[in-house]
Model the fold of this input.
Amino acid sequence: MVRVARRFARVGAAADLPNAAAFDAYIGPSGEIVVDPARKIIALHDGATAGGVQYTPSVSSNTYSPGALFGLTLSNNIADAVNDINISPGACRDIGDTGNIIIPTALTKRLDAAWAAGNNGGGLDTGSKAASTWYHVWAIRRSDTGVSDILISTSATNPVMPTNFNQKRRIGTVGTDGSLALLPFTQIGGWFYHQRPFVDLTNATGYSSPNLVTLTVPTGIKVRADMTVVPQASTGGNISFVSICDPDTGTAEVYDVVANAYTPVNASQVQVFTNTAGKVSVGTSSNDCQISIYTRGWYDGRDTYV
Done:
């Protein structure tokens, strides 16, 4: 219900309008103030203008710094973990630094349906839900009304925006498996962890020349992959080395994981940036050195530094 307050002096003698459409169509007497709490809009009426002169004080009175992001944490929906994502209340500055996007209450959005406004509405900007695909989650807003919502897209840069929505900010990424189900995950700040690590390389050999290895992390953006790396010493008792680095920077960020005849399995936790295809560069000191990689999760800056 939309609360109607009869001037400031008569707040207690309020009437109700049934919905947002009625709020926008209502013509009130001069000086009447009408409040839509769901959309955080205040309208001052003049006796002639439908919807009155509308203001969004919760946004216009407070300008966040560029890159600001609070809350908006993603999680699997318990009732429909296969298709639905929960988004906690929060706020952020849009990527163009033109306005604040505020999600005042928790929302659930469906990955198996086209975008529709509000809680439990569809989330997809275009197309239909696909298997083994990464989806970027966006907070979006209409600057004309202040209405905010959530959009889900395969694009990490240019989602197809709903009509009249013109501000956006990517707040995270979720993925599907080969059976169309959403991957179970946990988000803590910018860290996203799989429910169970993915085995992305198993006792692989032949890496004396570095090769690109695809990890189970989002594509379309660079993330800092969190892996457990397990090398197996080469034959003959020689010491073996494993180097893993960001393909975009070469040797600028290298980790050496060592195994030898006395410690044939020496697991190490490694964190390295991927390229936008979700790949890292892996090399070993000899072709017969075996290597396994278990991907635990990733860190996503979520465009915090703009």
In short: Residues 2-55 form a domain with the Seminal Fluid Protein  PDC-109 (Domain B) fold (CATH 2.10.10). The chain is about 5% helix and 45% strand. Confidence is low (pLDDT under 50) at residues 1-14. Helices lie at 20-25, 57-60.
